[in-house]
Structure formats: C-alpha cells, structure tokens
Amino acid sequence: xxxxNENVYKVLLLGDSTVGKxxxxxxxxxxxxQETHMxxxxxxxxxxxxxxxxxxxxxxxxxxxxxxxRFRSITKNYYxxxxxxxxxxxxxxxxxxxxxxxxxxxxxxxxSQNVVIYLIGNKIDLEDEQRKVSTEEGEKLAEKLGLPxxxxxxxxxxxxxxTFDDIVERIDKAFGDIPITPKQNKIFKPIKAKKKCCx
Length: 199
What we know:
The chain is an alpha/beta fold. The protein has helices spanning about 20-30, 70-75, 95-100, 100-110, 125-130, 135-145, 160-175, 180-185, and strands at about 5-15, 45-50, 55-65, 85-90, 115-120, 150. It is globular, with a radius of gyration of 16 Å. It has one domain: 3-Layer(aba) Sandwich (Rossmann fold).
C-alpha cells in the first residue's frame, strides 16, 4: 500500500518519432531493450518509485508520447500538468536535433512556468558508425536554450538512471511537496507494454 504523503511527479518524454523514447522508458523502468519497433499510439505511461538524496521517496509517473504530428494535439494536453519534460533527439538523425527548438517553444508555451526541461541526445551506442550530431553541438544547443544536457543509450543503459535521478532532484526543488491523492493512488500501477521497442 502506498503512503499517501509520498510526492508524485509527472514526467513527459518528448521528441520526434523513432528517437527512442519508448526504449528510453523501458530501459529505466523494466531494464529491458527490444529490437523490433512499433510506434507509440497516443500516450502510455509507467510508474517508478525512487529515493532522493535527502532520503525522501517519491513516485514518478513517466509518460511516453507519440512523436508523429497527428498526435501532437493529444500530447499538448499533457504539458500543463507536467513537472518535468525530457526532450530526446537521435544523435544519428540531424533532423530530430533540428526540431528540438520547435519542441522547446511548444513546451514553454503550453507547460507550467517552473516545469523542468531536460535535453537528451540518445543512441550513443551507435557512436562509432552513425553519429551525425556531435556532443559539442548538443551542449551548445542546451546552453543556448538554458537546459541541462546529457547523452544516453537506451540500448545499453548508459546515463539513463543518472538522467532520471538528476531531473527528479531538480523537479523536487522546483515543485516542493505535492502529495499523492487517494484517487491518483488507485491508478498508479505499472501497465504492461502494448508495443515493442526500437533502436
């Protein structure tokens, strides 16, 4: 049974289709990676509990969103209630990197003023053969947008846990105490994957 005094924070994963959002989520919550890909339809979520540096335990509700344009209006509805947003691009696909600025503009227009936005360059396991966006380019864009930045691999798990640890610490500082309600407590259950993942 969950402690009703626990904090619950909502984190959205955003970015173009095929950047690896679903794999990013599954690697963190299930420690799993699946090679085959089926696009996310609308939204899906997972629940995870974690302990902060101050000893407090919080719950994070992590939403995996569809990157396709036709689902953009659905996704936008979830911006306002979010405490954190992880914007993901694919280091092997420059277009997904170029589109980050548009994603940030949408988030800042629709989300709450103190939402924590985090920039991630994913798929660094493909570093040697396919990288098209350098770490320096990612760092430069993050600095320009005023965002924390990291590079990850949803394939081997590099920096996945560290990213979530960091963003949740930042969220807790930004939002303080938001106790979970009895109604929310009833829906906070891990749900089975309805799709397979992509590299």
